[in-house]
Design a protein that fits this description.
Number of domains: 2
Radius of gyration: 23 Å
Bound molecules: adenosine-5'-diphosphate, aspartic acid, magnesium ion
Strand order of the largest sheet: 3-6-2-1-9-11-12-10
CATH superfamily of the largest domain: Acetylglutamate kinase-like
Structural class: alpha/beta
């Protein structure tokens, strides 16, 4: 007997038929004698729809009221899943964020979980009741509804798994595991049986949206065992206990040496949510770069890739960097306002860019990973506009139109293609 937290994403919950299938999957685990808590997302597309309503109502909406609106999607699906489970004869009830409660801190629309009172939930699970928790939502210090940022239900699931000391946190989605790259783009992508926390954290942070970055960081810190698997299975599938066929996220110590040695690169991710800004003819002198990035930091805008180009004549240089797409307008405004202080000539935005990243712990002990990347892209005429690296990652910025080509070319270049792929 195990204690399991199961999380179902938006496509798994999209409509009553899908919810009925989820109820069957959940009931199978409960019938096998496990204690079960379920974390659900809103139906696919619903959160986008709710976000758009807020934007329509006012471009300068109150984030606290935004949270009231967008948290509702998960409230609907948690109630519906409880009803579907009850109709299968299971004992089930919903536990909203404020009822548990899931206490959060920091800003509305991007709150962080501070603590979860798992006592009542654990008691309910022990009594054989299936607990259903809407993901994404929490309760602020002053008693208001909060949400955890897009994709946050993964983080809710991991936090609840930690709070009830679950043996496993199973993340059910619309693909059957973590692949070497997005399987919806590269058909030759291969499913990975195991990925280390460190690699998954890096992959998620550079755009592999299969798990929200924060959920992986939290699982690493709390020692929660995560498995990614598909809810799109037929009714004859009967999984119980530990024979689930997805991808396990594990510590490096659980990784077999052969797994780590075999592949230099574990995965490749892409991110189309960054925009590039270039400032031309910035004075090439000490302190100049600080005048650019200080006002951006004050406006809480995260800068990712940065390049300072070779100085021109007359002591001037161009500076290029990337910011999240959603912050582009604000970044442009902040820089325009600081123009006098910075002393640039032109401010050029470009949203037609994508970041492609290769990730792998094998990189720590091998040279030539970046060279392989640059060569493979050059051979296909893909121009690199910026580069960043970490101990286990190399990222390049390219023109967005080349995203799919770059993913395919790099997948082949690093020997990741599935053997049986067409
Ligand atoms: P959910 O609604 O279940 O949370 P998401 O859409 O957030 O699902 O995440 C699942 C999607 O992540 C997949 O449909 C897939 O297109 C995408 N994805 C991107 N990179 C990867 C990867 N390396 N492995 C698996 N899926 C990936
Ligand atoms: N429904 C929320 C979103 O779409 C949270 C989630 O599904 O993880 O971002
Ligand atoms: Mg998701």
């Amino acid at each position: 007997m195990a204690r399991i937290v199961m999380k179902f994403g938006g496509t798994s919950m999209a409509g009553i038929d899908r919810i009925r299938r989820v109820a069957q999957i959940v009931k199978q685990q409960a019938d096998a004698g496990h204690e079960v808590a379920v974390v659900v997302s809103a139906m696919a597309g619903d959160t986008d729809r709710l976000v758009n309503f807020c934007r329509e109502a006012s471009s300068l909406y109150d984030p606290a009221e935004y949270d009231v609106v967008v948290a509702s999607g998960e409230q609907v699906t948690s109630g519906l899943l409880a009803i579907a489970l009850q109709s299968l004869g299971a004992k089930a009830r919903s536990w909203l964020g404020w009822q548990m409660p899931i206490r959060t801190v920091e800003a509305h629309s991007k709150a962080r979980i501070d603590s979860i009172d798992g006592e009542a939930l654990t008691a309910a699970m022990q009594s054989g009741e299936i607990a259903i928790i809407p993901g994404f939502q929490g309760l602020s210090e002053d008693g208001r509804v909060t949400t955890l940022g897009r994709g946050g239900s993964d983080t809710s699931a991991v936090a609840i798994a930690a709070a009830v000391k679950a043996d496993r946190c199973d993340i059910y989605t619309d693909v059957d595991g973590v692949y070497t790259t997005d399987p919806r783009i590269v058909t030759r992508a291969r499913k990975l049986n195991k990925v280390t926390f460190e690699e998954m954290l890096e992959l998620a942070s550079v755009g592999a949206k299969v798990l929200q970055t924060r959920s992986v960081g939290l699982a690493m810190k709390e020692g929660v065992r995560i498995q990614v698997l598909s809810s799109f299975t037929d009714e004859n599938t009967n999984w119980t206990a530990d024979d689930l066929p997805g991808t396990m996220i594990v510590g490096e110590d659980e990784m077999e040496i052969e797994d780590m040695e075999r592949q230099l690169i574990t995965g490749i991710a892409h991110d189309k949510n960054e925009a590039k800004i270039t400032l031309t003819r910035v004075p090439d002198k000490p302190g100049a770069v600080a005048t650019i990035f200080a006002p951006l930091a004050d406006a809480a805008i995260n800068v990712d890739m940065i390049i300072q180009n070779v100085g021109r004549e007359k002591g001037e240089t161009d500076v290029t960097f990337t910011v999240p797409n959603v912050d582009l307008d604000r970044a442009m405004q902040v820089l325009e306002e600081a123009k006098g202080k910075i002393g640039f000539n032109r401010l050029i935005p470009d949203t037609n860019v994508a970041k492609i990243s290769v990730v792998g712990v094998g990189m720590k002990s091998h040279a030539g990973v970046a060279a392989t990347m640059f060569k493979a892209l050059a051979e296909r005429g893909v121009n690199i506009q910026a580069i960043t690296t970490s101990e286990i990652k190399v990222s390049v910025l390219i023109e967005e139109d080349y995203t799919e080509l770059a993913l395919r070319v790099l997948h082949t270049a690093y020997g990741l293609d599935a053997e049986d792929a067409a």
